[in-house]
Design goal:
Blueprint (H helix, E strand, L loop, with lengths): L1 H19 L4 E7 L2 H17 L2 E7 L1 H12 L8 E5 L3 H6 L10 H4 L7 H8 L11 E13 H5 L1 H11 L9 H11 L7 E4 L8 H12 L19 H13 L12 H9 L3 E7 L4 H7 L3 E4 L10 E10 L5 H15 L1 H7 L10 H4 L2 H6 L3 H7 L3 E2 L7 H16 L5 H18 L7
Parallel strand pairs: 1-2, 1-3, 5-6, 8-9
Antiparallel strand pairs: 3-8, 4-6, 4-7, 4-8
Helix pairs in contact: 10-11, 10-19, 19-20
């Protein structure tokens, strides 16, 4: 009944807006990928219902962050809504860029229906505070695509069993993953075991390293005190980085510097057994390779399985007019409706934050990777989303890259990174001087 009343009130508001705001437009900026194209299609539906036009401007991923924050440097932004990465929310919330939605968001969506990881990492700042600066848009996670036809080949299965003394199955642990990667790694045949995320542009290497950091018991730092020493350079963190580095023996050519697009190519060209990437990048692979492919979630180490969170939320620019902010709220509220979310999940690579829908058979059946995605959500963690996240990210890319390239040993690299991260956090006033 509560949901029905909310929907009826929303429809009344939208009908009124249709009369009051004819010929108006909401501009949304997002990165260039399948979900952004799907959002434009939904935006066309919104215009049909309300008369308010939606324009989704797609910006290539490599330049997306730079273009957004350059635009925020103006007195008025060219967008009303930005769909920003999870790491951006701290900067957006504290630098006067994102409109606070704390009082408004509960009127647009039942907060209890939002997956708690999505609410914490995509919508709130500080995480868990109940202060909202974004509304759910696209939930996301990294996961593996694999050559299902290779795994099911009877000859391969027999050879694997003879060599390893067990059946060839999807790896559940990182140790099993290493064995499978080694087995399929045949560079003389132009076949390779796997490709992880190791790219030096933006956050690829960080997203690729995090599951090893956490699974071996390390962490970026203490979320309350912001202390880094002893967390990022613990014995477990060093072991995790060493394991990550050792796996590169079984990577495709160039896999020591593999970003999201490199991995898509490494898999779609038919050369690689297992590839790590974000789920919304997989629709094209499914379309082109069909039943040859399958999906599995990031492996565990012992009882620790952690997965890098992705995804973005709708944030309203504080540098757009009050009228445009109200129009933006109208669209965001419309998008959160159950009927719209049910359509959203039918588009390839589009993932809801609605817990009921994530658990529904309709969602799991919509795409071959959806079930694996849903199983991954409870294991998600994120990088720092503090205002100085970009400085922290740049330092991590540098030092982790040096470790993978053999310039520094893993312990030396993590000691240097921990020291630099603490300096950045001290200068930002987040970590007290010792």
């Amino acid at each position: 009944m509560k949901r029905a009343v909310r929907s009826a009130l929303l429809l009344l508001c939208l009908s009124w807006a249709n009369l009051a705001w004819a010929d108006e437009k909401v501009t949304i900026w997002w990165a260039q990928w399948e979900p952004a194209a799907a959002l434009q299609e939904l935006g066309n539906d919104f215009e049909t219902e309300t008369g308010i036009a939606i324009e989704v401007k797609q910006i290539p991923w490599p330049s997306y962050q730079d273009q957004v924050f350059l635009n925020f440097g103006n007195n008025k932004t060219d967008f009303d809504i930005v769909i920003g990465d999870s790491q951006w929310i701290g900067r957006g919330a504290t630098k006067g860029l994102y409109l606070e939605l704390t009082d408004w968001l509960p009127s647009a969506v039942d907060i209890d229906t939002i997956h708690p990881r999505a609410a914490r990492y995509l919508c709130e700042y500080p995480p868990g505070s109940g202060k909202f600066f974004a509304a759910p848009c696209e939930t996301d996670a990294i996961g593996f695509v694999y050559r299902k036809d290779w795994f099911e080949d009877e000859g391969e299965r027999a050879t694997f069993k003879a060599r390893f003394g067990r059946e060839l199955h999807l790896p559940d642990t990182w140790q099993e993953f290493r064995d499978v990667a080694e087995f399929f790694h045949r560079p003389e045949q132009k076949r390779y075991g796997m490709s992880l995320l190791t790219g030096r542009g933006y956050d690829s290497i960080v997203m690729g390293f995090q599951p090893f950091l956490w699974a071996w018991g390390g962490n970026w730092g203490d979320a309350e005190t912001f202390e880094v020493q002893g967390h990022l350079n613990s014995d477990g963190a060093v072991e995790g980085l060493q394991f990550f580095k050792d796996l590169l023996r079984f990577a495709t050519e160039g896999g020591e510097n593999a970003d999201y697009y490199f991995n898509l190519e490494a898999f779609s060209n038919g050369s690689t057994a297992m590839v790590l990437d974000y789920f919304p990048f997989y629709p094209g692979i499914v379309e082109s390779m069909g039943d040859q492919v399958g999906f599995f979630k990031v492996p565990r180490n012992g009882d620790r399985r952690f997965i890098s969170l992705g995804g973005q939320g709708f944030s309203i620019s504080k540098k757009t007019s009050a009228r445009q902010q109200e129009l933006a709220k109208q669209f965001i509220a419309w998008f959160q409706q159950r009927r719209v979310q049910e359509k959203w999940i039918t588009f390839p690579g589009c993932f809801t934050a609605n817990t009921e829908l994530l658990e529904s058979e309709a969602f799991r059946a919509a795409s071959p990777y959806n079930a694996t995605f849903a199983e991954s959500l409870d294991h998600l963690r994120d990088f720092w989303n503090v205002p100085v996240y970009n400085e922290l990210l740049a330092a991590a890319v540098q030092h982790l890259g040096e470790a993978l390239d053999g310039v520094r040993e893993p312990r030396e690299a993590l000691d240097a990174l921990a020291e630099e991260h603490e300096m950045i956090l001290m200068e930002a006033g987040l970590l007290e001087m010792q």
